[in-house]
Specification:
This protein is of the alpha+beta class and about 70 residues long. It has a single domain (about 1-70), classed as 2-Layer Sandwich (Alpha-Beta Plaits). The protein is built from two helices and four strands; from the N terminus they run E-H-E-E-H-E. It has helices spanning about 10-20, 50-60, and strands spanning about 1-10, 30-35, 40-45, 65-70. A four-stranded antiparallel beta sheet has the order 2-3-1-4. A hairpin with a 4-residue loop joins strand 2 (about 30-35) and strand 3.
Length: about 70
Amino acid sequence: MRKVFKIEVDCAVCAQKCEDAIKKVNGVLECQINFITQKMTIDIDGDLDKVMKEVEKVAKRIEPDFEIER
């Protein structure tokens, strides 16, 4: 399932680091973060809520101010 989320991330480098880490989360097939538009497109295989909780946890380890609007 493909979803688009509005996000908040402070810099382009952090956005890239978060994207790379999110791609490694179990259940994530693909992730793209656009720093300019502050949007994340993610392909998920599995329980959306469970995977998104892990995605947010991983991203916050890299960028504590990272937020996903659901």
